[in-house]
Design brief:
2 domains, two-stranded antiparallel sheet, binds iron/sulfur cluster
């Protein structure tokens, strides 16, 4: 019940637009801090982090090449970086791919990578709240 009526982001339906801070401007109670888009990017404000599910990710699992998450990541430098590798396809053939890795220090948890990942049902890259700016206790990396 503690989270009753609390807004929740479902990244498969939508994501946090990197250059937008409208939620803070329209929130009538001040529950979301009213900051400018520039402040949001420059601090940066993080709403979480992502992790790659290697069992579902197309290049990690050897099923197909894919770099969609790296392409859509809006941060600079990008929070997704790629490493060229040759993996075994199901059936044994070799496949040249670029494997995605997440730089947790750059990731702001915007969720566009989860939203655009071509793996449907449960995307192969998923957003969690850990790493958020509002709580020093909910961190992945040791500070
Ligand atoms: S978009 Fe999805 S399937 Fe493609 S590389 Fe990223 S995590 Fe893997
Ligand atoms: S959530 Fe995905 S797209 Fe957004 S900053 Fe993190 S890695 Fe980049």
């Amino acid at each position: 019940m503690a989270g009753f009526w609390t807004p929740r982001l479902i990244m498969t339906q939508g994501y946090c637009e990197y250059t937008c801070s409208l939620c803070g401007s329209v929130c009538p109670t001040g529950a979301i801090t009213d900051i400018t888009a520039r402040e949001k990017i420059e601090r940066p404000i993080k709403i979480g982090s992502v992790y790659v599910d290697r069992g579902r990710c197309l290049p990690w699992s050897g099923n197909a090449p894919c770099i969609v998450c790296e392409e859509v990541c809006p941060t600079s430098p990008k929070a997704i970086y790629l490493k060229k590798e040759t993996v075994s396809r199901p059936g044994g053939k070799k496949l040249a791919v670029q494997l995605p890795f997440v730089d947790l220090k750059q990731c702001v948890g915007c969720g566009i990578c989860e939203n655009k990942c071509p793996v449907k049902g449960l995307p192969a890259i998923r957003t969690i709240s850990a790493g958020e700016s509002r709580s020093l206790k909910n961190q992945i990396l040791l500070l």
